[in-house]
Every structure is written in C-alpha cells, then in structure tokens.
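Run log // design_07
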C-alpha cells in the first residue's frame, strides 16, 4: 500500500524513468494513460533516454521539465514532489546492471537506487535485445532488483509488455 508521501491534492505521484530504448519514443502514451488513472507524472531520463523522448510533448503533458541531470550545488531542491511509486520504462541492459550494482552515474539511475532504498514501490520494464538478456550479468541483476522489492516485467524473447499491462502493474501498487 502506498504511503501517500507524494500526494498532490488527492492524486498520487509516479516517477517514470526512461532509458535509451525505442519504446521511450512512445512514452507520451503511457504518461497520458497514467494521468487518466489518477497519477501525477514526472519524467526522469538518462542522457541517452532523452534522445529518444519527445521532451516538448512530455513537458506539456506533465507541466514539468523532464529531468536529465543532477541538481546543481546551489539548488536546494530537485523540484520534484515526493514519489508514491516509480516505473522504469523502458529500462536498458546498461541501466539494469548499473541499478543492481548501485552505480549512480546518471540522475535516472541514482533516483532508481535511492527510491528502492526508501521503500518506494517500483516497477522495472526492461527493453533488452535477446542476446543481451542472455549475458551472464543480466539475469542475476534482475534477481538482485527483485530481492530489493522491485517488480520486474521481463521475459527473455518476449515482447515488451503493453502500456496497459504496465499501467495495471502500477495500479496494483496502490
């Protein structure tokens, strides 16, 4: 059950973390669906993920900037309301492995590590080539994420889940 830590009025806050994979270009659809289900959405992206996004559209939809970098030393806040949930979609081979190992060299992976440590309910939806999914590091790192309470939506060789399925998983966190 979510704690309500990120409530904006009666709505809940979800951080959507996007990495550099093709599905990131369709993220606006998921943002609209999440908003329709009552979520306030904030988008955070890896630097490569931002190249796949329609940043202008996402900023218009969410009313907030897409966060792609760490805050500056003079900034006292990251400008984000506290999250009730996090959805990493799409999350890449690189970001899954860094997340599991705690390598926070991007604000996106840093946020994933921090929020799992805070106990914020989190869903990971990898988009990874089958060849990379069979790499010796990948499956064990998915298990590390699962052991930390992350719900992982991934099967080797299967297509990425539909946006409706990701939204349903997010809704199950409520």
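design_07 sequence
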């Amino acid at each position: 059950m979510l704690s309500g830590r990120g409530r904006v009025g009666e709505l809940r806050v979800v951080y959507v973390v996007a990495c550099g994979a093709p599905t990131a270009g369709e993220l606006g659809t998921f943002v609209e669906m999440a908003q329709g289900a009552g979520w306030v959405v904030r988008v955070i992206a890896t630097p490569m993920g931002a190249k796949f996004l329609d940043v202008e559209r996402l900023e218009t939809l969410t009313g907030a900037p897409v966060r792609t970098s760490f805050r500056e030393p003079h900034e006292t806040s990251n400008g984000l309301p506290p999250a009730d949930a996090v959805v990493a979609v799409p999350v890449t081979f690189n970001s899954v492995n860094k997340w599991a190992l705690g390598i926070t060299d991007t604000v996106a992976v840093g946020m994933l590590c921090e929020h799992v440590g805070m106990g914020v309910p989190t869903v990971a939806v990898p988009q990874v080539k089958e060849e990379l999914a069979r790499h010796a590091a990948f499956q064990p790192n998915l298990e590390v994420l699962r052991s930390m309470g992350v719900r992982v939506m991934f099967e080797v060789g299967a297509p990425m889940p539909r946006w409706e399925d990701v939204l349903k998983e997010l809704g199950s966190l409520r």
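The longest strand covers residues 12-18.
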